Batch of 3 targets.
Target 1
Amino acid sequence: MVTSRAERWALAPVALLLLDAEVRVLDANHEFLRMIEVPDVEAVAGRRLADLLTVGGRIYWETHVSPLLHIEGRVDEVAVELRTPHGREPVLLTATEREVRGERLVEVAMLSARERSRFEQELVGARRAAEDAERRVRLLHGIAADLASVAGLDGVVWVLLRTAVTLLGAGDAALWTAQESGPLRRWGGAEALAAPTIDELTEPAVREDGTVVVPLRTAGALLGVLALAPRRAAGADPLDLGTAAAAGQLAALALARATTHEQSVSVASELQGAMLSDGIVDDPAVEISARYRPGVHDLQVGGDWYDTFRVAPDVVALSVGDVVGRGLKAATSMGQLRTAVRAASDTGLPPEEVLGRLDRFVDRTGTGFMASLVYAELDLGRGALRYTCAGHLPPLLVPADGDSHYLWEARSTPLGVRGTTPRVADTVALAPGDLLLLFTDGVVERRDRPLGLALDELAEIVTNALEAGLDGEDLLAAVVARAPQDDDACLLAVRWLGPRTTDGPAPAVEPTAGSAGGPSADEERPG
Amino acid sequence: MVFAHGFGGDQSMWRYVAPVFATDHRVVLFDHSGCGASHPTAYDPDRHADLSGYVADVVEIVEAVADDPVTLVGHSVSAMIALLAAAERPDLFDRLVLVGPSPRYIDDDGYHGGFTAAEIDELLETMDANYLGWTQAMAPVIVGNPDRPALGDELAEVFRRNDPAVARKFARVTFLGDNRADLVRVRTPCLVVQSRVDVIAPLEVGHFVHEHLPDSDLVVIDSVGHCPNLSHPALLVAAMRDWLGGDRW
């Protein structure tokens, strides 16, 4: 028997609703009443559809579905939830709008979406997990790359505090590092970020205010604690404990590496300091000052050195050099080679033969291969300077009464390298008050330009500093201040004051006297 | 006259209102970052982590399009964005029209915002449940422009590229913020347009906004729902015309 259309609407196996222009219920079929567990239409008649939804569904209806319905006259397959006496009923909703005799009516059909909803939730969950994993990996890569770019404790701390905000999404971050003795040392973070409790030293934890605290451990040892405070903005995501914990593992490894590194750096720099400490000859005929400044970007010490010592009562030897490499090994090689220079020199032995002896030392020991070196001997009585450069930048001579110039003679290959040119030396005669500057290549700012230009600039810097009245340590400090920061810079300044008198300090220098220089010096100097 | 759309839509939410004013105003419409056809790179999770990023966007837009102070019309969350922009840069704004404003959606001690914190969490859940259908469901809003059907596919493509996660964040920014204390900072004359029935921004909230704004008028229009700009455009337009062209001007 064929039923009426009205009956078929009432008994359709899908929930059907008829709504008025203000989306209030005019009629509902059996399936809908069954879904929300009410006995008859009277229980819902006149109520707004939005009120039958969960609150989330209501807002979604108002902000998304209703506008769409107004514009398109139709919405399809929108997932919302109905409120029922026993909780929620997920449904898929389709609605159309039409006009009947000038009145706007909305027809709604709903299908239970319990199964689909479960399936979708799994899909959403899987998708979100995949997105989270991808984001986490990308983020950890970023942190690892940043940590790899720094060496010392300061650098690691700086990177951790910065990436906590830029990559991990923290509003504020503080780090505590373990010290050899005493309490944890705090770095960064506002006061509101409280120090970790005992419990927080063992396991990553989330505080009540959303702050994530991660102990940094390697092989069981506590190296520090990282605390990340969440951002306060309403739209900010909460901090992810898992990501923070993974970042903590990277941080712990970096801290361990930084600690080892700093120990090695401090051993190397102490060693280097000790080796350079005895290098200044004290004599009234000469003013000697020296300066060593380690590069800042790499905390490792380099293999630069300076040295002065007597080879005869009236002769002072000067050496400035640079062994290849950095760190503890370079520092020890430097010490050996510097001592070897002292051992190789001898009263009356010409500088080129000193280099020959050093070549043999390098051959035998392997220490100092490719090291560069300027070696010179200054006769304190006559002012004669005999010098030789093995692969090293030329010394700068600043006469007391003339223009400065580099000593370009007497050049040969670095130590241990047998070139076609023999080891050679040259002699210049100094006048009282003349200044000689020996330096390593870290003093010269290269910046991808020809060496000549860089050396001209150095000469100008020295001249300007002298004109500004700087001398000795102050002069060297001014020069070093202009040197590139990333490399080690080593400088030795030697000013010959003239033959010493037997009963007093060296005579005052009269730059205008111009009579003390030897004949060869006169040739080189403009009148 | 600059129109700023609310949460859940794009500039097409003004399709029945803006054209009416275009006859005697220069009308500027835009999509908020992360909404509609906005360029995917315009959205910055840091900048847009709270309303201040959207406020800065509006200030930049107004500075770019107008030499003189403008009338800014903001719907829903954009009503708050408009208020914050005017508090910060009163020189840019002549008048504000606030459609369904709410400075705080969550109930507080003595304040009725309409929702509990748990209910807002539920909204975020609902958005998650629609995660798969999210973009598809909203695409017709922007592509359904009968005047320019050719735009359809192109815009749908743009829209599909938009990140549902962004919409979710915008929901957090919208519904978890509290800007009640900012109302008193606004010196610009405001019109508060309140729907008679609005579950998102109830009547009480409309009164609260009106009472706390130093210079405002309140009009309750006989509309139902949070989007009178779509459901009852004629009532909204009349209220706006009345106020904008009224005696005080």
Note: The CA atoms of residues 117 and 182 of chain B lie 21 Å apart.
Target 2
Amino acid sequence: MPREKFKTLTQQMYYILLCLGEECCGIDIMDRVATLTGGAVRVGSGTLYHLLEQFLAAGLIRETCAEGRRRSYLLTPEGRALLEQEYRRILAQAEDYRRVFGKE
Amino acid sequence: MKNHRYCLEFFAFYDHTAIQRRVEEMAAQGWLLEKPGNFLWIYRRTEPRRLHAAVTYFPTASPFDPSPSQGELTMEEFCAQDGWRLLARWGQMQIFVSQEEDPVPIDTDPMTQVETVHRSMKRAMLPGHLVLAAVILWQLWFQLLQFRQGPVGFLASTSSLLGVPMWLLLLLATLYEIFFYFWWHRKAVRGAADGFFLPVRTNRLASALLLGGAIFLLLFSAIGSRSRLGILLGGCALYGVTILLTGRVREMMKRRGAPKMATMVVTIGLAAIFASLSVWGMVAATIRGNLWREHPPAETYEFSGHTFSVYHDPLPLTVADLTAPGDVRYSTQAEREETFLLAQTRYSQDALLGEACGAPELTYTIIEVKAPFLYPLCLASVTKEDPLFETQYRPAEAGPWGAAAAYQMYRHGEPTSWYLLLWEDRLAEVRLEDLPLTPQRMAVIGEKLRTA
């Protein structure tokens, strides 16, 4: 079944929103995600652009300032709640793992 | 040495996988993509180099935009950050290349990619394909109507007969594109939900074969027919001029910064006006130049200020076979249409206008049925009653004609000089003007039409 939009976040969505916990310029998010994950997660430029547009339209982020085409964004309370929900989902998965294989 | 190479490419608009591969292959051979298009892609010569190509889509872009939108430029900047350089734009499609060894892909989230492709397809390609499918269905319906109205003429006409498989092939090619896209999209959405990209694997050979088959049938139906070949070539030339002209106007308006809506209205309006004028011009040229005739007249003559054609085609049965024609001048014309199913030949011998009044004239049509199973259909079509003119064929004596069966036409209940003669594999309709029937004449007519 295709997942409902933003009901669960893809890895790329999750890290873009996570980076916008602090105000950040769109173009800098790619580097910030790579630094945050030690290079394990790379966000493509097309994916980043389209997701920022979608997050903005869904009210998950807001634009804080725009200088020409250089725009900065920040997570909204709705975005934060969604991120929190995703975090709890991941924690629940980790908990399930621990229940099966014990604490490691 | 050529600096540009023009290639016929059969990519589906959403087939980013094949396009990427092709751009990379051509770059490795020293040809860099300059301009993509519906079928014709232009490459320019460059140093052979190993490039990575990426095809991505921008759903809100339009071929009528005077310049790239702020959004497109922003995305271009994002891509440049990762080392991707824009190579070409084609509507919603954007093609980037990178010289880096292992660049971060432009699309790294399959869910976002599938959604972007789908939004672009819904705006760009799918409406066009659906309109095309509707036009083809209308054409097939029109062909069916033609068959119902006159099955003999339809089955004897190469263009009508081959028109059906030609339109069917075009319909299949269009439906193939639509259904294959939705099949891929459905699977791609499922794949994206599981976190992986589903590459597009369209079978371009199937599309090329279907389109090639349709073009072959179109050309084959025109071979040997002066009028059809002329109309086909004229139509192709006018279509090419329309595409070229509207493309030039669109590019000129874009260069001058005209608003998107104005460019769209002018381009589409111009195409509609030019297409209408072309059709009108072709119809006028066809009528004025007698282009619908399969062969030109032998001579012309003037009568009451008008020009009339005179033909000297050989006829199997002439007035001279039945009576002394005197010194009346005639035009004798034969028009034949033939397919592997049946042949229909119309013959006429008409006195020139202004000649002696009451000169005998002949008109007859011979239908040769090559496929016996079609005989009942042909007979039913020819003997069908006409409620408008109240005509019907009634059985007549066949013996004097030497035919297997004979009918005479009645109009408003009165007998006319139209006769229908039947043999095992042919039907002949004959009309006599000012030629009273005698047993000798009937025998001559029957013999000549049977063996014609």
Note: Residues 11-101 of chain A form a domain with the Arc Repressor Mutant, subunit A fold (CATH 1.10.10.10).
Target 3
Amino acid sequence: MGEGETMLVAWKYRKRENSFIQSFDPRAWLIFYACYLVGLVTFWDVRYLLPFFGVALFVLFTSGVKWHEIRRAFLFIVGFVFFFAILTFLTGRGGVEHYQQEHLIRQFKASFSILGWVPTLDITVERVFYAISQFVKVSSLAIMTILIPYSLDPRLYGITFKGLGLNDKFAYAMDLTMRFIPTFARDFQLTVDAQRARGYELEKLSGGLVEQVRKMGPIFVPVIIHAIIGSEDIIDAMDLRAFGIGPRTWIDVLERRRRDDILIRIGVVLLLASVMLGVLGLGNFWVPDALLTLAGG
Amino acid sequence: MSDTPLVVENLSFRYRDRTDTAIRNISFEAKPGEVLLIAGASGCGKTTLIRCLNGLIPRSYKGEISGSVRVFGEDTSTWKLAQISQKIGTVLQDPERQILGTRVLNEVAFGLENLGLPREEILERADEALRFLKIFHLRERETFTLSGGEKQKVALAGVLAMRPSILLLDEPLASLDPASAQDALDTARFLADQGMTILMVEHRVEDVLRIKPERVMFMSGGEIRYLGSLSGLSKVVNYREVKLPAKEIVERAKQDPPPAEIRILPGAAGKGESEALVRFEDVAFGYEADVEVLHGINLEIRRGDVIAVVGPNGAGKTTFVKHAIGLLKPKRGRVLVNGRDTREASVAQIASTLGYVFQSPSHMLFAPTVYDELAFGPKNLKHAKEQIEQEVKEALRIVNLSAQEQDPPLALSFGQQKRVSIAAILAMQSRILVMDEPTAGQDYQNYMNFMDSILQLPTFEAILFITHDVDLAVIYANRVLIVNEGRLVADGTPQEVLRDFDRLKANRLVPTSLLALNLERFPATGRFMKAEALAHI
């Protein structure tokens, strides 16, 4: 295919046999997903988070998505999550709002000092558990989110949002937006390639932050302009075919079955339970008492 | 109600942010069953006229409009776009930009869905349009997997499903390979023969002549310069402005002095025997692990080569050519540029010897002025300041944009932007030039001029360009490659490769009148040349 393409590209959706996630009406799945998210963000207690993680893993392994399809995106996100968990662990920042007191397990002190400062790493029970909780929580979120574009049929985006109660225009706009993301990614790549062919080296950016951002102009300006021009064409094309003049018919029909109702109910129960536990003050950051005693607390 | 589908009277329009009018005093009528060809150079007002007819002006594009557009006797100025779109269907220039649906059926049904028709009726009408255009088999396909020709038919089906009486086709041939273009033209003729009124804006006049449009309108400077039968066109327009059939050009050019001889690649002459500048050794590539799109390409680009790469849409031409600058690295085999494996050099390093012009200018233009845009490449290559100034001025002269030096490139027309994108690479003074469809979206006179100039530049030792225009290969190339399904199907001189019409057809290429004339005269000329030059032999 030529590189001058401007049309919308779809996500890597495929109809997958025996996929658990795809066996539901997309509306039901999105409702469940929203409930799951609220539940997930309510808790910091790793004992409460693990069941969520378990659900995420179950959905992942029954999704029918092949490892090679998802590998790059997945490694990137898990790597990112892992990096941040480690970072908060090392600095001890991030968890401070959840615990006031720390219990030292071991302290590492560097054998050198920098301008009088001796780099020190305190390994405390709280930091270890905060890192674990953070990793479990964000991984669950990432897994559940990343599976959606692989599992939701792009031609049903519009009708799904419509079915969730959005109006026609908004539902179609959501549909276009969802599909705009991969298109944007491809345009970005084309621009990077075109500028590299003019001797531009993204790797060799130097200078301060402002200078670096300025030097990214050759990439950002064309990408943004392209997006604007592209959207003007899309608007023309929509206008020319009577978009938005009145109530719209959607030729795709979604079918809500029993299993969808069950899923929605489970989602709602999960949501209510989470909110209730949260209100009762349960599910906050937790470390095992045994460890505290061990650490001499 | 009048029987005449379209009557335009004294139509003028000025865009809100411009001082000059885009079109002036346009008056014409169009009849049922007629193909009206609208031709003219870039910026002549064709697109503005189309927008006035389909209602985007003044509804989406604001400005000052006067005169009237009447459809079956009714003035459309008070109509809503939805009402107009059921009478006047428009297929925009680039079908890819107007396809909204993920699946072919959704795309075709889009307009009908918006009209809020009952679901059964929509499906019925969508299927009818698909069958009518003989693309029912594409119904369930995802639109981004379609070829260029298929996309256009799908876009057309989406418009036809709304059952318009008038069809506006804005440069329908621009992105199509010759066989798909022919197919698109046949479809237009067929629709007209069914009683539709077809207005077709197209640069490629010669191609459209094959379907015998009833009338031709020639626009220039926002006005109609000619409106009448085909036979009269060649008498009023200059053969350098519009591409006419080769025999007509020969007739007309006889009265003019012979064109200047083109000395191609003066920089390559006298530099010794054909040394390989670029070498492909058994190059195979695939974007995904298990799908190979290039299968073992072997090729040498030598000093003095002017290579035209031709072949169908989606044949792998761009993928193949991107290997030359290292943007893609082979999965198997290797590519050597100046003896160096592209795996071991950065793209920026290769760019100093090999300049690559991308197909679409909008992916690279960013600078506040044309001058800065052109200086970007040479600066990255660390050229000296005075040298850069000289390189930029020279490049601007070649593409005929010296007057726009201080203009923002993003404010220029598409054709001008395309020329800026070419000049941006020319300014880098590389030894090898690679261009992906350099003439797409350009008018005939402009692209012939800059091709003439580029070919005669002293800096280049070899040039390679991808094109759908067989005549460019005939006129400018001394070597033609046919690429199809990821393979090099033919490689030889134009006379060797283009002589075999069966092979051309098998690769979705269509012999042109210029090719036929050159082959006929070949015993006397010994080489291929422009029609103007043939006139004097």
Note: Residues 354-429 of chain B form one domain.
